[in-house]
Amino acid sequence: MSSVDVLVLGFANLVADGISMGFGDYLSSSTEKEMASKERDVTQWEVDNHGLSQITNLVKRYQELGMDPQDANMVVEIFSKYKNIMVDEKMMGQKGIMPPDQEEKPWKSGLVTFTSFLLFGCAPLLSFIILIPFTNNDTIKFIGACILSVLALTLLGLAKAKISGGSYTLSALMTVSNGVIAAAVAYAIGWSLRNLAGLEEP
Relative to the CA of 47, which of 2, 24, 29, 183 has its CA 20 to 30 Å away? Predict the structure, then answer.
């Protein structure tokens, strides 16, 4: 397969996968937000129509967590004066659901995922683009693609550690290891299909 074929097929696959990942993130974020909004409406109805029982349940929960009965009653009494806060507290504390963020835009999450996928996913292809004017050796281009892929994965791991506050070294190693394993599996499958299943080029 020529370098041009690699670039064409690689870029087409990259865009297709990016669209799939971005749209999947959009659907996931939209569904999560919609479910949280519906659950908040249910919780709001419960607080409005069964306020006393909801207060009692919340007091019991705080006591189960180790809070003194008097303190639990005082805290819930304060919450009961602010229904929005009480609704959010019940959602998080009793149902384990985060209140919906009205400023969250699912399409932005999808766009960020799509863009990030393209930026980091194009690293292997850059090797072929950069080296085309200098060499026709596919082995050199392949090695260059591997090096750029490792660099991209390292940057991704460092960015992950920066956001999460974890170890930079461990995060980079884990990210690179994950990429190497995934690439090795893909290569093994491709090699098997080509050599064992009789899919050699004519």
Answer: 29
